[in-house]
Write a structure and sequence with these properties.
Distance between the termini: 60 Å
Order of helices and strands: HEHEHHEHEHEHEHEHEHHEHHEHEHEEHE
Pathway: Amino-acid degradation; L-threonine degradation via propanoate pathway; propanoate from L-threonine: step 1/4
CATH architecture of the largest domain: 3-Layer(aba) Sandwich
Mean pLDDT: 89
Strand content: 15-25%
GO molecular function: threonine deaminase activity
Enzyme class: lyase
Family: Belongs to the serine/threonine dehydratase family.
Low-confidence stretches: 1-9
CATH class of the largest domain: Alpha Beta
Number of strands: 14
Structural class: alpha/beta
Number of domains: 3
Helix content: 40-55%
CATH topology of the largest domain: Rossmann fold
Cofactor: pyridoxal 5'-phosphate
Number of helices: 16
Length: about 400
């Protein structure tokens, strides 16, 4: 592929995706597809997980980045490439460039997780930290491209990138020929668009459902308007799909070929990540878990077999810790409770005894005695508890009230 002019709306065809598949042979892994008994029971049909979290660099991004850079003209390769990313795209560009012998400069926000910065460097990129938010980082990368002549590698808004991501769709059809529904996360739209081109060209009756985080869902208003529409201040823990405006190229494809776009909340994302870890034994980032989140409510309007694309597994350990706790809370397995008690010797021990009888595991205790809100003989205690589900949470709360404690929250 020699296409390299940004901004053109040249369509992506099945031949482009087939060409990308040949180009990626021996470069990108044909990732595993694993069945999920738990999700199959929830949906009422077989559910399989396409494990792009096990791809080289930990996400599908290597596919599109490699095809894009491999398609550059010799003089473009000589000028090097530049990208802006907080994570997955950065690593995909870094490894693809190294494999092709092209110098890469990757701009990352100053607050990017240290493991992602380190991995991007280890894959061979020159990393430059700039800005506090991705928009500032993007501006710096584009300025670098204009100043040096380096080719800017967009994470999703380019036909070659979309063709590379579309190879995921070809693998799905090879691994599960009977598939009826594919569920895939959508940020800018490159992965969903590529899969849609590949799958709809070969099996037009397969239903494709895109998933966005509620706080970063630019596609529903864009589809309603018939053009890409920007949303203000996108916010979600799923940074892999936190995109404020769809790309022009993928939007045209998604509008034509993707059957439906659904949204999921942060609680659903947390619960999905926890499910992947506990039930499937797979480490998946929040964006990668978004298709699973969409299936947690059951199989309404979904015909099986279903393939859910786990797009990536590059999750910062600090975020993972927070998300797992959030997921446990969403499932009623983690309870934070604040109450007041009489401040006297042994009062805290008595409280812990009540919780022990209720079989609640105490993870953390915060004990406040001096506060203008408290009476002279009062103390306030905040407890973080590990519980066994919503019913057990209710039992713990009732046990505290039965023992005479005033539960504040």
């Amino acid at each position: 592929m020699s296409y390299s002019t940004a901004g053109s709306l040249r369509s992506v065809t099945l031949d482009d995706v087939l060409g990308a598949q040949k180009m990626l042979s021996g470069i990108a892994r044909v990732t595993a597809m694993e069945g999920s008994r738990h999700l199959s029971q929830l949906v009422g049909a077989p559910v399989l997980l396409k494990c792009e979290n096990l791809q080289r660099t930990g996400s599908f991004k290597l596919r599109g980045a490699y095809v894009r850079i491999a398609g550059l003209l010799p003089e473009e390769r000589a000028a090097g490439v530049v990208a802006a990313s907080a994570g997955n795209h950065a690593q995909g560009v870094a490894l693809a460039s190294s494999l092709l012998g092209v110098h890469s400069t990757v701009f990352m926000p100053k607050g990017a997780p240290l493991p992602k910065i380190s991995a991007t460097r280890d894959y061979g990129a020159e990393v430059r930290l700039h800005g506090q938010v991705v928009d500032e980082t993007l501006a710096a990368a584009q300025e670098h491209a204009a100043r040096t002549g380096a080719v800017f590698i967009h994470p999703f808004d380019h036909p070659d990138v979309i063709a590379g991501q579309g190879t995921v769709g070809l693998e799905i059809l090879e691994q599960c020929p009977q598939v009826r529904t594919i569920v895939v996360g959508i940020g800018g739209g490159g992965l969903a668009a590529g899969i849609a081109v590949a799958v709809k060209s070969l099996k037009p009756d397969v239903r494709i459902i895109g998933v966005q985080a509620e706080g970063s869902a630019a596609y529903p208003p864009s589809l309603a308007a018939g053009r890409p529409v920007a949303i203000e201040n996108p916010a979600t823990m799923a940074d892999g799909i936190k995109v404020g405006r769809p790309g022009e190229v993928p939007f045209a494809i998604v509008e034509e070929l993707v059957d439906e776009v659904r949204t999921v909340g942060e609680d659903q994302l947390s619960a999905a990540l926890l499910l992947c870890l506990e039930r499937a034994k797979l480490v998946v980032e929040p964006a990668g878990a978004s298709p699973v989140a969409a299936l947690l409510g059951g199989g309404d309007g979904i015909e099986g077999p279903v393939v859910a694309v786990l797009s990536g597994g590059n999750v910062d350990p600090v975020l993972l810790q927070r998300v797992l706790r959030h997921g446990m809370a969403a499932q009623g397995r983690y309870l934070a409770v604040r109450l007041r008690l009489t401040d006297r010797p042994g009062a805290l021990a008595t409280l812990l005894g009540v919780l022990s009888v209720a079989d609640a595991n105490v993870l953390d205790v915060s004990h406040v005695r001096t506060d203008p809100r408290l009476g002279l003989t009062e103390a306030e205690v905040e407890l973080h508890l590990e519980t066994k589900g919503p019913a057990h949470c209710a039992e713990v709360g009732q046990a505290l009230r039965d023992s005479g404690y005033t539960v504040m929250d």
